[in-house]
Design goal:
homodimer, alpha/beta, Nucleotidyltransferase, domain 5, 2 domains, seven-stranded mixed β-sheet, five-stranded mixed β-sheet, 39% helix, globular
C-alpha cells in the first residue's frame, strides 16, 4: 500500500509516493510555480510584499502528482490503485480570499491581476501596522490571545494579512466571501468542497495564527474582532467554528480530482498542516526531539505531551495542542530567513550562482571561528523567534578594508547559528526538553559547514533526517495513519522514518570561541531587539579584535 | 619661471611643472610604485600592516620628474633652465629607519626584505598597542602632549610606529641610526644630506605626529621617552632639535640629483610637508576655508591666524603652528578611509573594476536619501577624527533580503559624508570658522554623486579646486614663494590657484532626510565609539524603516 504526500513550498510543489510499510520512496516530482519571481509575486516598492497565484497551486498539483506516479510506476510492486490516502502540507500562514463556492477570487478575470486577491504568502509582511494594532488591542482587551503566541502577534499571520487587505484593498475584501489557509484549501479542492464554511480546517494553521483556541471557544470573539473592524467581526460567521488535529480527515478524494490525478476516488485526505509540522513527523519527532527544518527560513518544532501542563513561553510563537501530533502540544519557533540570507549575499550582492555558493562555502570552511573579526545579525527578514518582530533588519559589524565576501558569508551562517542557539536556550529555560536535534531541508543535507557551525555554536549534536523530503514524507505518514496502515503516529514514525549516518558533533575549542561571539551577538540582539535599552557597546569592536587576535595566535 | 611640485601618494608619485606667474600646469607625470600591492607591502596575517620600499620612492622621483619635464618641454616658453625651485609633499606620518649616512636600512641587502626596515606607511596601524601605552603614559605624566593632538595619540604616528619596531623587530631598531619622515627624507635626498641629524625637519610632520612643540622645547623630553623605553630616549639625540615651517628651505639641489633630473644645481628645495597640507595651499586655503582632500582617505585642513588664541579641540588630531602656512595654526582632521571603503566594496567584495564603480554610482544616483533603509559607519580603517581610535571597524545596518550592492555602495558614501559632518560640527563648535569648503582629490573631481551627498549631508556648498593636482601644486607654490617669485603665500595662492566652475549646493529636502539619518549615524557612532555608553537602540531599525516609508511615499 502507498500514500502520497504533497508538499507546497515557497517556490515549488513536490509530490512523493511512499510505501506505507517502510517509508520507501517510490517516486517524486517537483514542479516550480510558473508565475512571478520563482513563484513569488513581488512589489519593487515594498519589500514586505510576497504573494502567490492560486492557479499555480492547481497547475503544480496535477503535474507533480502525475510526475511522482509516473516515476513510481517504473518500480516493481507499485500500482496507482494501491494508493490509499493523500496528505498535504503547505507554507503558512498563507491565507487566500475565496468566493462563496470556495473558488479563489484570483481565478476570476475581474481580480486575476490584483495583488490583494492572490494568496498572501507566509513571508508577506505588509500587515505589520495591523499586527502592531492587534498587539495593542489584545494587550488591552484579550491578553490571553497573545500570551499563547509568545507575547507578540506577527505580521506573517492570518488576521494581520486579512485586516491589511481590508485597509488597502477594501474592494477585494468585500468581494471575498471567506478566507482559507492554503493548508486547508488544497485538501478542500481534492475533496471537492464547494463552500468555504464546509472546509475542514486544521488546528495547526488555526492555532495561534488565527488566534484559535478551544480555551476561548475557537476564533477570537466578535466583540474583540469588532474593535479591529466590524467587517472582521462579520467575517467570523463565514469562517469556521472548529479546527481539527490529524485524527480527523479533511475529506475523501472527489471524482473530478480522482480522475485528474489517476487515483482511486474516495480515498481519505489527511487534514492539512504546515510544512514543518508534517516535516517534524517525517523526521520522527517525539518528546525530547527538536526538529529543525532548515531552508529559505528555519522552522523549529518540538512536542510535549498534552498530559503535562506547559507554560506560555515569551517569544515562542506557538504552543498549540494537536498542531503536530494528536495528543501533544506542538511547540513552534523559527527564524524568518536562513537560506534566504545566504541567497541574498551570494546571488543578490555578489551576483553569483550555485558555483559561487560552493566556492564561498569552501573558502569559509578554511576559516577558524572568530578569525574574521565579524559578527552579524540574522534579521534581514525580521526576527520570528524570540523577538517576534518583522521590523528588525540585518546588521554586520567588524569589517575592515580587507574583509572578504567569504568571511561575510561565514559570518552570516554564524549569525543564523546564533539565532538558533537563542531559540534552544529559550525553550529549554521554559522546560521543553531538548536531548536530540534532527535537521531536515536542503541546507541540512548539502551544507556540512553550516551543520558543523550549528553544532559548534549550540553545543548540540546535529543529526540529519534520512529522507530528503521529510515534509512530504510526514504528509504521507499522516495519510497512512488515517488510512489505517499503522495504528498510530508513533508506530508509523518508527516504521517509516530514519536518520542519515552523518552526525555533526560539537568541537570543544570552537565552542569556546563561539561562546564569546554569541555573547557579542546577544549584545546586538538585545540592544537592537529592545530587550535591553542600555547596553554598553563601547568595547564591542575591540572585543571582536581581541577574539580575532587570540584566534590568529 | 617654473617650479616643480612632487607629490608622493599612497600608490604612486606625481611630478608637476608649474608656471610661477599664474599656476599654469605645463607638464605632469605619475609613476606607480613597482613593489607590493599597488606599492603597498601587506601582511595577510595582520591587516594593520602597510609598508613601502624606499627604493620605490627614488625610482618614482627620477621617472616622474623626467616625465613631467618631457611633457613641459613640448610647450612653447618652457625650459628646464628656468626651473627655480622644487617642493615635495608626501603621505605621513610615514617614518623610515636610516643609517648614519641618511641611507634607508632597506637599501642594504641585509635588511631589504625585512618588513620592519621599510618605510612605515601612514596607514600602518600595527603600533596600536604602543599608541595605547603612549596615551596612558601621557595622560599620567604629560597631559599637554596629547591635549595638542585631540586627546588621543594615534597608532598612525611616528612614536607608535618606532616603538612598535623596537618591540617586534629590535634588530632593525638597533641597526637604525635614526628615523626620518619621508616628507623630510625626500627633500634631504635632493639636497644631498648625508647625515640624518642634518636633515631639515618640517614642523608639519614633527608637530603633533612626533609630539614636537616649541611650547615644551621640541620633541618629548628624555624623561618621558625613558618611560616608554630607554632606547627611545637615546634615539632623541639622533633625531632633531628644531623643526621648521615653509619660510625655511630644506636645502639646495645637489649636483648629483641636479644631473639626474636635468635641473639647475643649487635651486632651493621647499621644506617637506604632508600632502594635504601643501594640498590645502594648492586649494587656496585661507582663514574660513575648510579644504577637504578626498582620496583613499580624507584629510581636512583649516588655518587660523597665529595671532589669535585657539583652544585644543577634543578629537581633532592636530593644531600646529606653521604646519600649513607660516603665521597660521594648521588645524588638521581626517577620515581614515573614504575611497578605500568604496574600493573595498567594489573591488574586494563585488569583485568589480572601474566600470562597476561607474555602474553602481549611476544606480545609486537614482536612489533618494533614506530610500534604502540603510545606515553605515565609515570605520573600516578605524576612526581618525573625532574618535581617534584605529580599533574601530565597519558596520552596516538595515539590510533586507532585497538590499542591493548599489544601495550599500550609496550607504557607504553617505557614511563618509556623516563622518565629514561630525568633523565640521566639532571644529565649528570650538570656534574654527568654516564659511567655504573647497574639495580636491580624484573623488571630488570624478564623483558628482558623492559631492552632492556631501553638500546635502553637511548643508555646506561644496567647491572643487580647479587643479587636479592640488598637492603637487601646493608644493610648487611653496617652492615659488621660497624662490622669490611671489612676496608671500597669500599673493602666490591668489595668482596660482582657482576653483572649478562646478559647485554643489545642498538640496533642502535631502538635508531634512539626512538630518534624521545623521542622528541615527550618531547613535551608532556614539555607542560603538564609546562617547555614550547607554544609548537606547531599541527603535533604531524601526526609525530607519519609518524614514524609508516616508521617503518612498
Amino acid at each position: 500500500m502507498f500514500t502520497i504526500g504533497i508538499d507546497y513550498g515557497t517556490n515549488s510543489v513536490r509530490a512523493l509516493v511512499v510505501r506505507s510499510a517502510d517509508g520507501a520512496e517510490f517516486g517524486s516530482c517537483v514542479v516550480g510555480y510558473p508565475s512571478g519571481d520563482e513563484g513569488v509575486l513581488l512589489d519593487s516598492h515594498d519589500h514586505h510584499l510576497a504573494r502567490q497565484r492560486p492557479a499555480d497551486y492547481l497547475f503544480g498539483l496535477e503535474r507533480s502528482v502525475a510526475g511522482a506516479l509516473a516515476e513510481a510506476a517504473k518500480r516493481p510492486g507499485f500500482s496507482a490503485a494501491n494508493v490509499i490516502g493523500l496528505g498535504v502540507d503547505t507554507t503558512g500562514s498563507s491565507p487566500l480570499p475565496v468566493d462563496a463556492q470556495n473558488r479563489p477570487l484570483a481565478l476570476d478575470d475581474k481580480w486575476k491581476d490584483n495583488l490583494a486577491a492572490q494568496c498572501w504568502l507566509w513571508k508577506d509582511h505588509t500587515g505589520w501596522r495591523e499586527a502592531a494594532r492587534i498587539n495593542e488591542l489584545a494587550a488591552k482587551h484579550r491578553p490571553q490571545y497573545i500570551a499563547k503566541c509568545g507575547g507578540v502577534y506577527s505580521s506573517e499571520w492570518w488576521w494581520s494579512k486579512i485586516w491589511h487587505c481590508l485597509d488597502v484593498a477594501p474592494a477585494v475584501f468585500d468581494a471575498a466571501f471567506s478566507w482559507v489557509e492554503i493548508a486547508d484549501w488544497i485538501p478542500s479542492v481534492l475533496a471537492g468542497v464547494g463552500d468555504p464554511r464546509k472546509v475542514k480546517r486544521g488546528v495547526c494553521a488555526a492555532g495561534h495564527k488565527a488566534l484559535y483556541s478551544d480555551e476561548w471557544g475557537g476564533l477570537p470573539d466578535k466583540e474583540f474582532l469588532s474593535l479591529m473592524h466590524p467587517k472582521l467581526a462579520a467575517l467570523r460567521d463565514r469562517l469556521y467554528e472548529k479546527a481539527h488535529d490529524a485524527t480527523e480527515a479533511a475529506g475523501a478524494l472527489c471524482d473530478e480530482w480522482a480522475k485528474r490525478l489517476g487515483l482511486p476516488a474516495g480515498i481519505p485526505i489527511a487534514i492539512g498542516e504546515f510544512d514543518v509540522h508534517y516535516g517534524a513527523i517525517g523526521c520522527g519527532v517525539r518528546e525530547g526531539t527538536l526538529v529543525k527544518v532548515i531552508g529559505t527560513s528555519t522552522c523549529d518544532i518540538c512536542v510535549v505531551s498534552a498530559e503535562k501542563s506547559i507554560d506560555d513561553i515569551p517569544g515562542i510563537c506557538g504552543i498549540v495542542k494537536g498542531a503536530v501530533l494528536p495528543g501533544y502540544y506542538g511547540v513552534e519557533a523559527g527564524q524568518s530567513a536562513v537560506g534566504d540570507i545566504f541567497k541574498w549575499w551570494v546571488e543578490w550582492v555578489c551576483k553569483g550562482d550555485a558555483d559561487l555558493h560552493a566556492a564561498l562555502s569552501a573558502e569559509a570552511a578554511k576559516q577558524k571561528p572568530g578569525q574574521s573579526g565579524l559578527v552579524a545579525l540574522d534579521w534581514n527578514n525580521g526576527n520570528r523567534t524570540i523577538l517576534v518582530d518583522q521590523l528588525l533588519s540585518g546588521l554586520i559589524v567588524g569589517q575592515t578594508l580587507y574583509t572578504t565576501r567569504a568571511e561575510i558569508y561565514r559570518a552570516l551562517i554564524e549569525a543564523t547559528a546564533f539565532g538558533a542557539r537563542a531559540i534552544i536556550e529559550r525553550i529549554k529555560e521554559y522546560g521543553v526538553p531538548v536531548d536530540r536535534v534532527v535537521c531536515a531541508g536542503g541546507i541540512a543535507e548539502k551544507n556540512p559547514l553550516l551543520m558543523q557551525i550549528y553544532a559548534d555554536v549550540t553545543g548540540c549534536t546535529m543529526h540529519v533526517a534520512a529522507s530528503s523530503q521529510s515534509c512530504a514524507l510526514g504528509s504521507a505518514i499522516s495519510a497512512a495513519v488515517l488510512a489505517g496502515a499503522h495504528p498510530n503516529f508513533a508506530a508509523a514514525e518508527q516504521a517509516m522514518t530514519s536518520l542519515a549516518s552523518t552526525v555533526y558533533e560539537p568541537v570543544a575549542v570552537h565552542k569556546v570561541v563561539y561562546d564569546q561571539l554569541y555573547a557579542l551577538y546577544r549584545q546586538l540582539h538585545d540592544s537592537f531587539g529592545g530587550l535591553n535599552r542600555s547596553i554598553d557597546l563601547s568595547r564591542f569592536m575591540k572585543d571582536l579584535i581581541d577574539i580575532k587576535y587570540a584566534v590568529n595566535g
